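I hope you will forgive my troubling you with a question about protein structure. I set the record out below, with my sincere thanks for your time.
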Amino acid sequence: MSRYSLDFRKKIVEAYEKGDTSIRKVAKRFLVSPDTVRRLVKQYRLTGDLSPRKCGTKKKSILSKHEEAVIDIVEAHPDLTLWQYSDKLRDKLGINVSTTMIDRFLKQHDIQPLSQSLSTLTTLGKPVIQTL
């Protein structure tokens, strides 16, 4: 749903609160859905405010709770694959995480395990020697 101006929201709620009309009639009059009218009226009655609420939720990764332990495991075993990290985290910390979640965590912390950096050093199936 697009965000409606605060003034427009007030007009919708005021039109319904007058009491001489239905939600559907108000929705038709302002060219919005009946659910929008219901939601705005409910929000106004509960909070007294009509400002837009924030969209979505900000869920924290389960790995963020174990950040230090995860980093310690990666530093202690830099040559493991993402699947192996998943197994190790399940064994040591008792948490089940996907390889995607581990990959995202590592990217957020600018960590590149040795197994991933080695796989990027191959060209046409032939290893490339990298000098330090």
